[in-house]
Write a structure and sequence with these properties.
This protein has 21 helices and ten strands. By secondary structure, it is α/β, with parallel strands linked by helices. The protein has a five-stranded parallel β-sheet with strand order 1-10-9-8-7. Helix 11 packs across helix 15. The radius of gyration is 23 Å and the shape is globular.
């Protein structure tokens, strides 16, 4: 940035040198702010926010085998973590068993490998599932993993209304930003709404979707595009569920969102506040929800993995702390803080503990949780909240003009929007206009010797062996009969989760259930 250039946010919003009351002329605080816990929820979904209790400290973890991840979970819980968050490996996300040739080289690499209920039993061994809530970052195979989790919880004797947690289950952003899809968009939407209906009837405390802007932002979107595209996806899920015969006020209170907390602290705070206000208005006025709980945007936040650098990696501790602070000042309900070594490898237990301690210091030492929405009324924050909302509303207008979120994905509208923003930011970093400390400025010595996590080189063979034991120990004709019922339901009508649960209880594998669905639905092939 040159000395006389005007500062802008990453999304191009111009930042003035000073803000005062003239920047909020005609601004009615009653309409724009309201009270915490009341429409339009700008100041938070609950009246007392962190004065009642702190956000859930939910560190994301998963690598290698179920046994190794279970050990990390228990270490994090012992260190004071208050909720679990599971990362799954790529084959699990793509509906592929660990002994499938397509899984070669990927088993346990970016998350834990799960092939059957037996793996989930090991994953949560000695962890009382009636006492913790569990978030699972899983999309195309979300229904399968939810059912496996339910089966294991039931095996522990946990009552259905005590099984608490979230599946991401947000397939639309996969086609545009992340890529772990299997089936085409429209049958995938059926799985999403079947899961909504199933949980409404069977798992009343479960959050059925975490509508994710995180990966949209990681792919290169701006802050306004992150919330605009994600809210558009949320509206598409609500519309699909209503078309499937569900009452909006029956399922909407269980919807949740998942945001990225990026590097511009004030823009991120404004983004979170704007998103709550937008969702409340759209759910009440556009979707016709009558229950105020249907208007509340509750969300999990993760600090921005894309901002972590391999150069001078200890700088990432500071980046993560500031991003976590933005999430807390913006009113998040749960938070994951990235470990400083994640640009190099999966986190070590040491780096994961530092990440958790970062949240604990913010929560217990910084004083920012002592009052609700402490930045409310700041001329700058309120003006920026309005500016982000205005830009995000334009994004939703573009998606509406394309025929809605599903059609916009099918036409490539969303993909192009994200790609254009990612390209502009890459140019800014290349030119030095956008400063990345330790990368394009203040480079200095980058030779830190950071110890990284090493995975078991025999993991793939061991996982295949465990899977072979599952197959050898089950009643094959009963499994085949259950899979045939899944196929009939997929080809016809009815809620898919009921026959899928029977198949999984009989020890059908994730790959087998997913393969049956792919045989009926087909596989998505991107256009172009």
């Amino acid at each position: 940035m040159t000395e006389d250039s005007t500062p802008r946010t990453s999304g191009g919003i111009e930042i003035g040198p000073v803000y005062d009351a003239t920047d909020l002329d005609g601004w009615d605080p009653g309409l724009r702010l309201g009270e915490p816990g009341s429409f339009p929820f700008t100041r938070g979904p609950y009246p007392t926010m962190y004065r009642g209790r702190l956000w859930t400290m939910r560190q994301y973890a998963g690598f290698g085998s179920a046994d190794a991840t279970n050990e990390r979970f228990r270490a994090l819980l012992d260190a004071g973590q208050t909720g679990l968050s599971v990362a799954f490996d790529l084959p699990t996300q793509m509906g592929i068993d660990s002994d499938d040739p397509r899984a070669l080289g990927e088993v346990g690499k970016v998350g834990v490998a799960v092939d059957s209920v037996a793996d989930v039993e090991r994953l949560f061994a000695s962890i009382p599932l009636g006492e913790v809530s569990t978030s699972m970052t899983i999309n195309a195979t979300a229904a399968i993993l939810l059912l496996m989790y339910q089966i294991v919880a039931e095996g522990q004797g946990v009552a259905a209304d005590q099984i608490r947690g979230t599946v991401q289950n947000d397939i639309l952003k996969e086609y545009a930003a992340r890529g772990t899809y299997i089936y085409p968009p429209r049958p995938s939407m059926r799985l999403v709404t079947d899961l909504f209906a199933y949980c409404s009837a069977e798992l009343p405390s479960w959050n059925t979707i975490s509508i994710s802007g995180y990966h949209i932002r990681e792919a290169g979107s701006t802050a306004a595009e992150e919330i605009g595209l994600t809210i558009a996806n949320g509206l598409a899920y609500v519309e699909a569920a209503v078309e499937a015969g569900l009452d909006v006020d029956e399922f909407a209170p269980r919807l949740s969102f998942f945001w990225n907390s990026h590097h511009n602290l004030f823009e991120e705070v404004a983004k979170f506040r704007a998103a709550r206000r937008m969702w409340a208005g759209l759910m009440r006025d556009r979707m016709g929800a009558a229950d105020p709980n249907s208007w509340k945007l509750r969300f999990h936040t993760q600090t921005a993995g894309s901002t972590l650098t391999a150069q001078q990696p200890e700088n990432n501790i500071v980046r993560t702390a500031l991003q976590a602070l933005a999430a807390v000042l913006g009113g998040t309900q749960s938070l994951h803080t990235n470990a400083y070594d994640e640009a190099l490898a999966l986190p070590t237990e040491h780096s994961a503990t530092i990440a958790l301690r970062t949240q604990q210091i913010i929560g217990y030492e910084a004083g920012v949780a002592d009052t609700v929405d402490p930045l409310a009324g700041s001329y700058f924050v309120e003006a920026l909240t309005d500016a982000v909302e205005e830009a995000a509303t334009r994004v939703i207008g573009e998606i509406d003009a394309a025929g809605g979120a599903v059609a916009a994905v099918e036409q490539g509208v969303v993909q192009r929007m994200i790609e254009d923003s990612a390209y502009r930011e890459a140019q800014r970093q290349e030119s030095g206009e956008s400063v990345v400390v330790g990368v394009n400025r203040f480079t200095g010595d980058t030779s830190e010797d950071i110890p990284t996590l090493q995975l078991d080189p025999e993991l793939e063979a061991k996982q295949a062996g465990l899977l072979g034991e599952v197959r050898a120990g089950r009643d094959t004709p009963l499994v085949e009969a259950a899979l045939e019922e899944v196929e009939r339901t997929a080809a016809g009508g009815g809620n898919l989760l009921y026959p899928m649960k029977v198949a999984l209880e009989r020890r059908a594998t994730l790959g087998e259930v997913s393969g049956v669905l792919e045989g009926v639905f087909g596989k998505h092939r991107p256009a172009g």
